[in-house]
Structure formats: structure tokens, C-alpha cells
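Lab meeting tomorrow. Look over both lines:
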Amino acid sequence: MSTQLLMKYDQFDQSAFDTDAEARGQAGLTVLQLWSEGAQTRWVLLQVSDKARAQAWLDKERGLGHPPAAAHMLETA
């Protein structure tokens, strides 16, 4: 079974997302797919290698005031 993180951003800043790549990597997250929905909304699918580190990264993003609008930790069936 594998864990993935699906996130939705209502306002997406590609530059900020790219800048955060190292922090995501340190949290055990790898971008698998990026989709656009309209002009600003983006969905990002990430592979999770460590749930605890991924959750800590999400908590930090919330604390910094720029979390995704929605985040779902999913297990493959």
C-alpha cells in the first residue's frame, strides 16, 4: 500500500511552490502530478514516504498562513 497526498490550492503561486520544493522533499513528499482547474486553482498529487513528516509539513504550512485549501492523505486500495 502506498500513501499519497492530494492538495487543492484556490490561489496558486508557481514561484512560491517551486521555492518550497526542498522543504517538501525534506518532508518526504514528491510531486507526481499537477493539474489546473480554471485560471487560479491547482490540484497537486504527491507521493508520501513518511506520513508523520508530511503531516508536520502540512501543519507548518497552516501555521505560516499559506496552506492548501484542502488536503487529503490517501492510501492506495
Remarks:
- The longest strand covers residues 29-37.
- The chain has one domain: 3-75.
